[in-house]
Amino acid sequence: MTAYAMDSRESADLQTEVNQLSEKEVEILKSSAASDTDVEGEAPPTYLESTTITLPRGINQAFTPGRSLYINSRGIGVIRFPTPSSELEIAIHNQDGSLAYVSTRDKRCSGDAVLSSPKLGNLLSTTYFFGPGRHPVLRQLYPTPFNGDSPDTNKDITVAGKFISQSTDFEMPDGSKFEWRYVRLGYDGGGRSKLLVLEKIECEGDGSRKRVAQLLRTKETIPQGSSKHRAGCGGELVLEQDAHLDIDEAVIVGTCLLMLKREVDRRRAIQMMVMTGVVAS
Fold first, then answer.
1. Is 79 exposed, middle or buried (0-12, 13-18, 19+ CB in 10 A)?
2. Residue 98 sits in which domain range?
3. Deepest of 27, 32, 98, 149, by most Cβ within 10 A of its Cβ?
4. How many domains does the chain have?
5. pTM for the whole structure
6. Nearest by Cα to 242 from 211, 216, 219
7. Is residue 174 part of a domain?
């Protein structure tokens, strides 16, 4: 029995979602999957004490790097069966190499995961669904200033956006809104690097945004044994120095992992379409 057959339930759910895509959505999927890991150049940008970078769409551009976390996800390659990732645990380390968080899945055929820390235990659960209108559900497993600091307060985080898209919005229990998306970042030394950026939407009317974190994936920052061409590979997650005032750190990590999971799903969807002859290999 092949690994593809062994993971048939989760794969069948994704296949059903792929089969329901419109022609326009298929084109969006193909475009998103093709550019997920499109990183040109290898040297990361140099951060000064305070870095101001020209970014599109009216972002509040000031970004002062604070602490960094290293997400050790290897991701998946291009030539393979469209099975779920075999990584049941993804470790997230501090700059000194100590363990900060672990994301754990109980079984390969499920995308559901729990984020925990050595000091605080389970912090965040993520439940994945496939199908129209069935978005992932994230739930904080402990009280924080952003969910009312009460065990009885609703801690569900509302996620919007299809897996085919390169952007994902989510709303915290306190009503604050955030978006993960990809941007290209220019830097001295030649080449361009694509960042996965988390922004707080401060005013929807005028497009005002505040960047609170970004995932940098270059030769220097991706996990050993991975490559920039693997969908869902990790890297250096840089938090803005005051990010803790806007959002809980565990939510930053958990939603970043959700974005990496969606990269994997986009690549698997393309692999499924290649196998069934929907797209040319």
1. exposed
2. 3-275
3. 32
4. 1
5. 0.80
6. 211
7. yes
